[in-house]
Amino acid sequence: MTDGSHVFRTAAALIRSAEAFQKLTTPAVLANDLSAIANIARARIELIRSIEAKAARAEAICGAFESLQSLTAAQSMANTIAKLSSSAEAIASLDRQSKWLQNIRDAQFRLPAIESTLAGVLQKMEASQLLVSGISTDQIGAALPIGRQQQRQLVNSFSKLGEAHDRFYTGATGSTSTLLSIEPALVAGPATEYLNAADFINATTGQLADETTPGIQIVAGERQSTLDAASSLTEELARRFPDLSEALEGARIARAEKKADYVRHFLTSYRELLTQLLHRLAPDESVKAWTDDRKDFDKGRPTRAARVRFICRQIVQEKLRSFVDKDIPAVVELFSIFQAGTHSAASPFPERQLDAVQCRVEGAMLFLLQIDSAGVG
Fold first, then answer.
1. Distance, CA of 277 to CA of 365 (rounded, Å)
2. 276-311 pLDDT per residue, tens
3. pTM of the predicted structure, to 2 decimals
4. Which of 128, 237, 275, 352 could form a disulfide with 245 if both were Cys (CB 3.0 to 4.6 A apart)?
5. Strand partners, 80
6. d(CA 302, CA 159)
7. CA 77 → CA 71, 91, 114, 302, distances in Å?
């Protein structure tokens, strides 16, 4: 975790994937694909015409068979049916080839978006590595008023999130078809979530990076991207859940005004927002209709883990589902860690840490909305 080597291994895989995609963009390749599709279409028309002629012949043979009960006609009809079956299989094969070529063509048109997404993922990985490079496990949580057990929980959850992050990108970039099957926003999601988590980990050490540190501008740029994502969250909530959008704006204003006990109100408001969003995206009755496993319920209501799995139910990539399974509990854990420090008169949490918590929670909320909107993985 401390040397960030896993980030660069995954980045290398992403670069190889991007290079593979570039081979699909040449005009010659595209022209060949279009020509192949046209040839398949012509072959398909010829086969259909052949089937129509054979079908007419079969109909005539049926008439002869019914009137004469001729064994010869029956055999002829059987042969014709066999030929028709063979023709149908040929058309099915052509359809499969056509679909394959169409997928290649779609990939070529999607390439700019894919390349842009991969470039963004690589930059987020680099920023994450800068944030955690050189940090020992003993330093994580050192600037928080928490006990040793909570500190270990923080280290373990971040470590598991990093492992899930690496597994997802290793799997996604190892297969072109897998990468194409995932919405660009979901391809970038784990990198964004891991970056926000790394930013929070960095803030808990109390050893903030010097602005003159080489490469720190990348981190600053990614933090600006997080602020831009905050406006996306506001817009998405306003479109789907206007009351939650208003509550989010109220929580932001309350923190900005810094009135008495504002930290406790800030944490309480954000925890309730995340809870409400989970309940909106995974209502009780919908989850109950989806699963009857007793482990998914507590006192008759769906558990948080069950709601998260329901939201991710249409994601076909297991490694992406696994990442979300690690991500959301890690966010919820932050509230428990910070809860101990909110009872004192003066906040023990500097603004840098509160900024990191806010980005972490808002990022997770936007990720859940993107997963739900995509409907596929």
1. 7
2. 999 999 999 999 999 999 999 999 999 999 999 999
3. 0.74
4. 237
5. none
6. 27
7. 10, 21, 53, 61
